[in-house]
């Protein structure tokens, strides 16, 4: 019996061994064939893989960044908030935590960790245990970079249950090995950190470090690094913001891994693991940080630019993904001073407005009577009303019910910052309509570079920009254009006129006869310099009559006013709407020796590699002679130097050893308060008023530009001069090298001039 069974057993064993060998070889060859078919996407069954060029230049979305002229990051434009860093910018703590937790044999393998794979297979298939991930950092980088798990990279066979993940894993193995050939270990590790999602809209380690700890990646401590590395497992579940207990446990797991792999001692682990997680959490958005209004203005320009310019390969630029570096002319220090000046003054001014308002509504007509149904009419212009109208049609009862329905909301408040309260849509509209608004811009008149831009109070709650988008009546700040026309037509600043009623007749128009701000006339003669300094309407009207509205309008346009100007006598008192942007540009012409430079705010645009794509240069053109421009700075100095000048309230500390020029402006019923201020190096303009012209101080004195707008300029200039690092110094306006052809010494002018007929009452009815 034994002799017969032994051959059978031997034969069975031999056949089994032979079968196993054949199966192994077939399986091995089949796997090789499977990998090869995936690598070439055989018959389109497996989905695409990145080609070698894509591996050499991986394309991941990178946020475009906006920098100030002094190198401070002002903001970003992104779909995924990601900005790359180099390996040298990473904290060693971060690198150690990452390797210890995610890929302890990272330095040893070539993209695939066979030991980790065998562990996963053994525990998962044979023991049915959760073995954790077997992916290397190289594989995870491949997944991040090339989106191997998205539908776009899948083929027909990816729809087969169980086969999809095998195909995906195989793709990641292939790409990982190719990455290992194309990059160093440090580069792969950096790529992984730059492309990972940390949650909280933070993509990449630079954004994550900023978002959670307000630090650079190089500044991260051991425990902070462990928190961020812990997020790779599940960004939401282990979020230190939303799930702090989970995050703490995960952080300590990472620390334990670092200890297990000799990156930490037992004592270090014991001391670090008991520490709480200390965050400095802030999610980046366009409502936070410096120059929020300015960033939105730049964004609109950049979107237009990307549509008008193409890359070298003919494709369009993507503002939100191409990692453009945009360098603005804004100086972050001056921007901060401007924002502080606006905030500090407007907080005080709003309190004064509330006090004067009392229990009365501030929306009043020319007779100071409250305008009926003002809020009811205003709400019909809101988005909330439009949506309700779409939903309820002509059912006004339902619309009104919803508009008056109380709900939890946060509102802007000067006293308490962001205020959590209970209001209806009507309540909030009524609340916000009582807020005074402001705009401010400062420019270097010699280069045209804008240095500071404050479009409003708070971009989160008030989106409208009052520097470029907003246009309001400039009031008396328009008068310098009348006097500029006079200077160009040979009038000296010493030319004298009597402060008396003036009537201007134009065929087909009603007689125009403006009164002075105080409703009185002195019937005294004064120079036009003093008249502009004191903002005397009658004398400005007289000069308009001598010159004509056409000449004044042409002068204003040549100096830089681009808004429509109606050629009527009242133009002299600033009745046509203009923006702060164009007013600052026009006043800059006086300081820049008569050459108009259009204000600009983008210096250059670079690609993500630092190559300059476009360099912007200022647009300049001659607008008036150097002599006339200097005489206008002399005229504007009158507000500080002439008795009763509207800039006399500027502190001596700012005026000492300095030549400054300025002009206040206040419109009808004090609806708008303006101040335009100039120094030898800066031209700045500010406006203050209600969003609606009907909202203003009842007292003209309280609402005049000298009180509502000028303090912002004073606070700003004080801060600028105090910061010696900016390089702005006090001093005189440069005088032309050639002698002046127009006399400005009024004693000499009086002796030489015999033009006393100009003091007589003017009886001419038609001058135009």
Largest sheet: 5 strands, mixed
The radius of gyration computed from the alpha-carbon positions, rounded to a whole number of angstroms, is 36 Å
- How much of the sequence lies in strands comes to 5-15%
Biggest sheet, spatial arrangement of strands: 2-1-3-11-12
Q: Summarize the amount of helix as a percent range.
A: 40-55%
- Report low-confidence residues grouped into runs of 5 or more: 124-131, 755-761, 763-768
Number of strands: 16
- What do the pLDDT scores average to? 87
Structure description:
There is one protein chain. This protein is of the alpha+beta class. Mean pLDDT is 87; it is low at 124-131, 755-761 and 763-768. Strand 1 (64-67) and strand 2 form a beta hairpin. The protein has 28 helices and 16 strands. A five-stranded mixed beta sheet has the order 2-1-3-11-12, covered by helices on one side. A five-stranded antiparallel beta sheet has the order 7-6-16-15-14, sandwiched between helices. Strands 4-5 form a two-stranded antiparallel sheet.
List the helices and strands and how they pair.
Layout: H1 2-40, H2 52-56, E1 64-67, E2 73-77, H3 92-102, H4 114-126, H5 137-146, H6 163-182, H7 185-195, H8 205-213, H9 222-230, H10 244-260, H11 266-273, H12 292-308, E3 325-328, H13 332-357, H14 374-379, H15 383-392, H16 396-403, E4 407-413, E5 417-423, H17 425-433, E6 436-443, E7 450-454, H18 479-488, E8 496-498, E9 525-527, H19 528-534, H20 537-547, H21 549-559, H22 580-591, E10 595-597, E11 602-606, E12 612-615, E13 620-622, H23 626-641, H24 652-655, E14 661-666, E15 672-678, E16 683-690, H25 700-703, H26 705-708, H27 710-722, H28 746-752
Parallel strand pairs: 1-3
Antiparallel strand pairs: 1-2, 3-11, 4-5, 6-7, 6-16, 8-9, 10-13, 11-12, 14-15, 15-16
Helix pairs in contact: 3-9, 3-10, 5-6, 5-7, 9-10, 10-11, 13-27, 15-16, 18-20, 18-21, 18-23, 19-23
């Amino acid at each position: 019996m034994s002799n017969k069974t032994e051959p059978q057993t031997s034969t069975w064993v031999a056949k089994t061994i032979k079968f196993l060998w054949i199966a192994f070889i077939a399986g091995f060859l089949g796997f090789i064939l499977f990998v090869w078919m995936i690598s070439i996407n055989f018959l389109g069954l497996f989905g695409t893989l990145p080609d070698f060029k894509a591996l050499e230049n991986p394309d991941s979305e990178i946020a475009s960044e906006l920098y100030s002229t002094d190198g401070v990051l002002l903001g970003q434009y992104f779909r995924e908030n990601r900005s790359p860093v180099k390996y040298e910018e990473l904290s060693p703590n971060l690198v150690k935590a990452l390797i210890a937790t995610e890929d302890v044999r990272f330095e040893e393998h070539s993209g695939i960790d066979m030991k980790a794979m065998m562990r996963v297979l053994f525990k998962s298939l044979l023991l049915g245990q959760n073995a954790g991930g077997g992916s290397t950092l190289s594989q995870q980088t491949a997944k991040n970079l090339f989106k191997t798990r998205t539908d776009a990279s899948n083929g027909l066979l990816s729809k087969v249950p169980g086969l999809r993940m095998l195909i995906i894993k195989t793709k990641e193995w292939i790409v990982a090995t190719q990455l290992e050939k194309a990059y160093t270990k440090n580069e792969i590790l950096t790529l992984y950190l730059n492309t990972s999602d940390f949650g909280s809209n933070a993509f990449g380690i630079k954004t994550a470090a900023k978002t959670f700890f307000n630090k650079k990646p190089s500044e991260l401590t051991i425990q902070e690094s462990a928190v961020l590395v812990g997020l790779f497992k599940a960004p939401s579940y282990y979020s230190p913001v939303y799930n702090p207990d989970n995050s703490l446990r995960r952080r300590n797991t990472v620390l334990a891994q670092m200890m297990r792999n000799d990156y930490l001692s037992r004592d270090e682990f014991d001391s670090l693991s008991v520490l709480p997680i200390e965050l400095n959490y802030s999610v980046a958005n366009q409502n936070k940080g410096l120059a929020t209004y300015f960033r939105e203005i730049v964004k609109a320009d950049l979107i237009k630019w990307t549509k008008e310019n193409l890359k070298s390969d003919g494709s369009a630029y993507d503002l939100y993904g191409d990692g453009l570096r945009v360098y603005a002319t804004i100086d972050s220090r001056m921007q901060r001073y401007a924002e502080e000046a606006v905030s500090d003054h407007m907080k005080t001014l709003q309190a004064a407005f509330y006090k004067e308002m009392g229990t009365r509504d501030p929306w009043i007509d020319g007779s100071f009577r409250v305008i009926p149904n003002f809020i009811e009419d205003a709400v019909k212009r809101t988005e909330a009303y439009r949506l309700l109208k779409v939903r309820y049609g002509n059912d006004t009862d339902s619309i009104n019910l919803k508009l008056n329905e109380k709900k939890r909301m946060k509102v802007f408040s000067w006293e308490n910052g962001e205020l959590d309260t209970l209001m209806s849509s009507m309540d909030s509209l009524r609340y916000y309509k009582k807020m005074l608004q402001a705009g401010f811009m400062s420019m270097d008149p010699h280069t045209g570079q804008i240095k500071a831009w404050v479009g409003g109070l708070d971009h989160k709650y008030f989106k409208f920009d009052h520097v470029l988008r907003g246009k309001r009546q400039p009031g008396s700040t328009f008068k310098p254009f009348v006097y500029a026309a006079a200077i160009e037509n040979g009038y000296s600043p010493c030319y004298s006129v009597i402060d008396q009623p003036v009537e201007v007749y134009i065929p087909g128009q009603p007689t125009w006869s403006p009164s002075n701000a105080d409703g009185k006339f002195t019937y005294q003669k004064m120079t036009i310099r003093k008249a502009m300094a004191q903002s005397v309407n009658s004398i400005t009207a007289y000069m308009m009559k001598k010159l004509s509205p056409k000449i004044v309008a042409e002068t204003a346009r040549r100096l830089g006013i681009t808004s429509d100007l109606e050629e009527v006598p009242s133009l002299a008192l600033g009745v046509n709407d203009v923006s702060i942007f164009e007013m600052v540009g026009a006043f800059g012409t006086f300081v820049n020796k008569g050459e108009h430079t259009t204000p600009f705010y983008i210096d250059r645009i670079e690609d993500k590699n630092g190559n300059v794509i476009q360099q912007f240069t200022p647009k300049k053109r001659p607008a008036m002679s150097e002599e006339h421009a200097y005489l206008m700075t002399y005229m504007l100095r009158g507000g500080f130097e002439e008795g009763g000048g509207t800039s006399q309230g500027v502190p001596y500390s700012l005026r000492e050893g300095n030549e400054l020029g300025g002009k206040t402006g206040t419109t009808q019923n004090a609806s708008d308060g303006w101040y335009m201020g100039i120094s030898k190096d800066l031209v700045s303009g500010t406006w203050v008023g209600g969003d609606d012209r009907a909202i203003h101080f009842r007292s003209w004195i309280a609402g005049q530009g000298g009180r509502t707008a000028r303090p912002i300029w004073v606070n700003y200039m004080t801060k600028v001069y105090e910061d010696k690092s900016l390089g702005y110094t006090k001093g005189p306006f440069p005088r032309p090298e050639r002698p002046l052809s127009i006399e400005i010494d009024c004693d000499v002018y009086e002796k030489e001039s015999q033009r006393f007929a100009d003091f007589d009452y003017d009886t001419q009815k038609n001058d135009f």
